[in-house]
Design goal:
Layout lengths: L1 H27 L6 H27 L1 H7 L3 H30 L7 H71 L5 H17 L6 E2 H19 L3 E6 L8 E2 L3 H12 L8 E8 L2 E7 L13 H13 L4 E4 L3 E7 L5
Parallel strand pairs: 2-4
Antiparallel strand pairs: 1-3, 4-5, 5-7, 6-7
Helix pairs in contact: 1-2, 1-5, 2-4, 2-5, 4-5, 5-6, 5-9, 6-7, 7-8
Length: 337
């Protein structure tokens, strides 16, 4: 049915165009005696052209039945086109014989009109299957685009769901350290942790948030880290004013700060500095490199999660550079929401 609706206008206009083309040739040769004869010829041409189109439409709806018999698409196409051509020839012959015997009075022999009808049938068959092929290719492209969109959405949903346990796992480790050391800031830490986690939950279903908003929560999270390490941890932000109006996946900066804290030693004489600044269409998050001698258990989700979310949102690459003294992540600027 969709195929028939899609091609109804094509069928009408192609029928009229082919009919007038063949009638024009006869008119130029002076084969019409009067308007009545031309009108009858017009009706005859239109009749079997319309019947051919309708039969092709009907046969196309039978393709599911043919699939049960012929698994090969090539075999089905050959069978359909052969049946369409044969039925078209039969329609032409029957219509021309009936009209020729009852209405028409033509000087040309019947075989001329049958041959003309068969030629029209061939043209219509070629047109039908050519346009159907174009339609099917378009449908495949639309379906593929929809599947890609659904796949991207599913991946994004999965990545967003990963952020919650990843954040909570690291935050609870930090809280455990504060409690073990009887740190008086533990209570304040819990309150701030609740605020940060509330933000995470509120933005969990969003693909992008404003950079200003995400950086604000990153500052709050940095204060949680500072509660544990005091002056041995520092966050410095020097971004251009226009960068604050761009966008980023939720919790990007918080995850990168977590990553820096998790993989580096922090303590007396080992202060960790995390810098956030922009340069040449990128936002750079850089920290001084002082790797831990013993690596903590890690989920491995943080940086890879960010890579994949940026890939899905912008098809642009997140660059990770590791030198002798610094580790930095370069995020492409997302200027459109």
């Amino acid at each position: 049915m969709k195929f028939q609706r899609y091609f109804r206008k094509i069928a009408v206009w192609s029928t009229l165009a082919i009919t007038f083309f063949f009638m024009l040739n006869r008119a130029v040769d002076g084969e019409y005696r009067d308007i009545l004869q031309a009108s009858i010829d017009f009706l005859v041409l239109c009749t079997y052209a319309v019947l051919i189109w309708q039969f092709n439409f009907w046969l196309d709806t039978q393709e599911p039945k043919l699939k049960r018999v012929f698994s090969s698409s090539g075999a089905r196409l050959f069978l359909q086109s052969a049946i369409s051509l044969l039925v078209g020839v039969v329609l032409v012959v029957v219509v021309e014989i009936i009209v020729h015997k009852t209405i028409k009075e033509e000087k040309a022999p019947l075989i001329f009109f049958i041959f003309r009808g068969i030629l029209i049938n061939i043209i219509l068959q070629i047109l039908f299957y050519a346009v159907r092929s174009v339609y099917q290719i378009q449908q495949v492209q639309v379906t593929n685009a929809q599947l890609m969109e659904m796949s991207a959405k599913a991946q994004m949903d999965l990545l967003r769901q990963q952020v919650n346990p990843h954040f909570l796992f690291n935050a609870l480790n930090t809280l455990k350290t504060l409690v073990k050391s009887n740190n008086p800031d533990a209570q304040d830490f819990i309150v701030q942790l609740a605020d940060v986690y509330r933000y995470l939950l509120q933005n969990n279903q969003k693909e992008k948030v404003s950079l200003r908003e995400d950086l604000s929560i990153a500052r709050s999270y940095a204060s949680l880290i500072h509660a544990r390490f005091e002056d041995n941890f520092k966050l410095e932000v020097t971004l251009s004013p226009d960068v604050y109006e761009t966008y980023t996946p939720p919790n990007t900066f918080q995850l990168l700060i977590e990553n820096a804290v998790k993989h580096n030693m922090i303590g007396a004489g080992k202060a960790l500095l995390v810098e956030i600044y922009n340069d040449e269409g990128h936002i750079i998050i850089r920290n001084n490199l002082q790797p831990k001698r013993t690596v903590e258990h890690t989920t491995g989700l943080g940086l890879e999660n960010i890579r994949q979310r940026y890939q899905l949102l912008s098809n642009r690459e997140v660059k990770v550079l590791k030198g002798e003294k610094y580790f930095e992540v370069r995020l492409p600027v997302l200027s459109e929401k």
